């Protein structure tokens, strides 16, 4: 993954991803043409969307709604992450726990997002807890499955080495199980976070009065289509930024030894 | 440490070991030889306390080895693979096993460095296992086994994965370590040349179910070439017998 030290225009081309940029320009051009053909209500022009982004940045709405969404995502996602790690610990300590976790994951995976949205509205009403709970329930199986798979894939031969050298249970967990599970955990977190963002925004359509999902739906109601596109761009931005800043650096840090 | 293997039998679905007995005095270098798959590794695991025998007993300085969970404190094991933790530096890998002995962080690091130096890895303490060669990883595994200051060192074809040149270097290295430390070593190998070159006691096992077919004191009184020829002949007989299916 790491970019080599090699300089030159070829390396810069890779960095800038020229083919992707070219595609982006084509998309923008087609978008502009289509916008002129179908009108700003159906498809606002790229320029209008750009201006909309400027407006919410200046007015502070960008930070308000992004912050509200991120807060809910982080709580729901964080809760799921904590429980997933506990599931991993349980399945390391006690074989039957693996079966239980796997069955639980299967059931949760086959439950629709909408079920959790409706149920959380009934249980938690019009509060922050509703999107948090939905996010929690949707991301839990993804991360739980990954962590348990990671724990199962721990090299038995390394555990046997731990036994030979009389490492305590805790020491084996800390020195052998956790490091072998981390790649699975990080992969699960990556998928889980993307899912959390998508799901919590849907949950925000109902019941709350802040957050990206709320403001998108509101923009639709007041016929401000360009703002729907603006907030969609914001979501993409959040995803890219967390991927680059959080997960890539996390992976690099944790896997220095490779 | 004196090692007594007394009437060890092991059966899984089929009998693997059948009443294997031998003794090794303190400071002996025992080489276990035999056809592939005859149960050498199983015997080593039984000696190391990793697997319980069906019958029989292993005694270290007269004390029977206990099975179930923890292995004996005074046995160091070098496996076929290095079994280093890839996410820890060589130094940390060695220091890790000293934790179980209750050493503090400072002494752990000092001991780890001392043993890494002893096996010729000075300057590589901070390297991760993936950054050094297979031979160096196996040296680090030996340093780890020595660091707990075991009375008995078990080695299970530790150089099987190395190329011929590294193998010879490591043989000489192990011989030096043995001479310097005076430890009792049990060394599993399928290479007769290796066994004749480094062992003081050579134990030739039969094909499965394995028994001790021959126990040879390799004290230099026998010509190494003649000895190697003889052992090659025995191992051929055993391999043929195994393939013939006749016990």
Show the helix and strand layout.
The complex is a heterodimer of chains A (258) and B (247).
Chain A: H1 8-16, H2 18-38, H3 46-59, H4 61-93, H5 95-109, H6 113-124, H7 129-152, H8 156-164, H9 169-203, H10 212-221, H11 225-254
Helix pairs in contact in A: 3-11, 4-5, 4-7, 4-9, 4-10, 5-7, 6-7, 7-9, 9-11, 10-11
Chain B: E1 3-11, E2 15-24, E3 29-33, H1 40-47, E4 55-60, E5 63-64, E6 75-78, H2 90-99, H3 105-118, H4 134-147, E7 152-156, H5 164-181, E8 184-188, H6 192-198, E9 201-205, E10 212-217, H7 224-244
Parallel strand pairs in B: 3-8, 3-9, 6-7, 7-8
Antiparallel strand pairs in B: 1-2, 1-4, 4-5, 9-10
How would you characterize the overall build of this protein?
The complex is a heterodimer of chains A (258) and B (247). Chain A is an all-alpha fold and 258 residues long. Chain A contains eleven helices and no strands. Chain A has helices at residues 8-16, 18-38, 46-59, 61-93, 95-109, 113-124, 129-152, 156-164, 169-203, 212-221, 225-254. In chain A, α4 packs parallel to α7 (129-152). The longest helix of chain A is centred in the last third of the chain and has 35 residues, at 169-203. Chain A is globular and about 75 Å long. The N and C termini of chain A lie close together (12 Å). Chain B has 247 residues and is α/β, with parallel strands linked by helices. The two termini of chain B are 34 Å apart. Chain A binds chain B through residues 157-158, 160-161, 163-168, 171, 175-176, 179, 256-258, and chain B through 48, 50, 69-71, 73, 75, 77, 79, 81, 83, 85-88, 96-97, 99-100, 128-130, 144, 148.
């Amino acid at each position: 993954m790491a970019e080599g030290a090699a300089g030159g225009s070829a390396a810069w081309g890779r960095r800038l991803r020229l083919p992707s940029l070219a595609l982006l320009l084509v998309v923008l051009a087609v978008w502009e043409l289509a916008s002129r053909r179908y009108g700003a209500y159906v498809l606002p022009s790229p320029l209008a969307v750009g201006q909309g982004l400027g407006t919410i940045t200046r007015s502070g709405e960008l930070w308000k709604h992004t912050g509200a969404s991120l807060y809910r995502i982080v709580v729901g996602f964080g809760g799921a992450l904590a429980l997933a790690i506990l599931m991993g610990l349980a399945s390391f300590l006690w074989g039957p726990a693996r079966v239980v976790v796997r069955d639980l994951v299967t059931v949760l995976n086959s439950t629709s997002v909408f079920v959790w949205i409706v149920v959380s509205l009934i249980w938690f009403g019009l509060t922050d807890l509703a999107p948090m709970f939905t996010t929690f329930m949707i991301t839990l199986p993804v991360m739980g499955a990954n962590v348990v798979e990671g724990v199962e894939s721990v090299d038995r031969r390394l555990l046997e080495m731990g036994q030979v050298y009389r490492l305590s249970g805790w020491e084996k967990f800390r020195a052998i199980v956790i490091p072998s599970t981390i790649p699975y955990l990080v992969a699960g977190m990556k998928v889980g976070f993307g899912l959390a963002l998508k799901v919590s925004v849907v949950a925000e359509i109902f019941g709350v009065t802040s957050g990206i999902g709320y403001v998108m739906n509101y923009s639709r109601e007041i016929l401000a289509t360009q703002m729907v596109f603006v907030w969609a761009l914001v979501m993409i931005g959040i995803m890219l930024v967390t991927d680059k800043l959080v997960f890539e650096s996390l992976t690099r840090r944790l896997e220095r030894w490779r | 440490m004196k090692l007594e293997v007394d009437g060890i039998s092991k059966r899984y679905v089929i009998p693997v070991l059948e009443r294997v007995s031998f003794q090794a005095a303190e400071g002996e270098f025992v080489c276990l030889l035999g056809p592939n798959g005859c149960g050498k590794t199983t015997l080593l695991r039984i000696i190391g306390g990793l697997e319980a025998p069906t019958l029989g007993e292993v005694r270290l300085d007269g004390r029977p080895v206990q099975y179930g969970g923890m292995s004996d404190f005074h046995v160091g094991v070098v496996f076929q693979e290095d079994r280093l933790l890839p996410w820890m530096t060589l130094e940390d890998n060695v220091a890790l096993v000293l934790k179980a002995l209750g050493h503090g962080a400072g002494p752990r690091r000092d001991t780890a460095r001392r043993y890494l130096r002893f096996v010729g890895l000075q300057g590589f303490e901070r390297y991760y296992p993936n950054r050094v060669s297979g031979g160096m990883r196996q040296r680090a595994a030996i340093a780890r086994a020595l660091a707990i200051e075991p009375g008995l060192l078990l080695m299970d074809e530790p150089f099987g994965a190395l190329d011929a040149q590294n193998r010879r270097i490591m043989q000489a290295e192990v011989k030096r370590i043995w001479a310097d430390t005076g430890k009792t070593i049990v060394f599993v190998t399928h290479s007769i040349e290796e066994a004749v070159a480094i062992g003081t006691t050579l134990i030739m096992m039969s094909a499965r179910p394995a028994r001790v077919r021959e126990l040879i004191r390799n004290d230099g009184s026998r010509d190494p070439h003649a000895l190697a020829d003889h052992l090659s002949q025995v191992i051929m007989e055993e391999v043929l017998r195994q393939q013939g299916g006749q016990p």
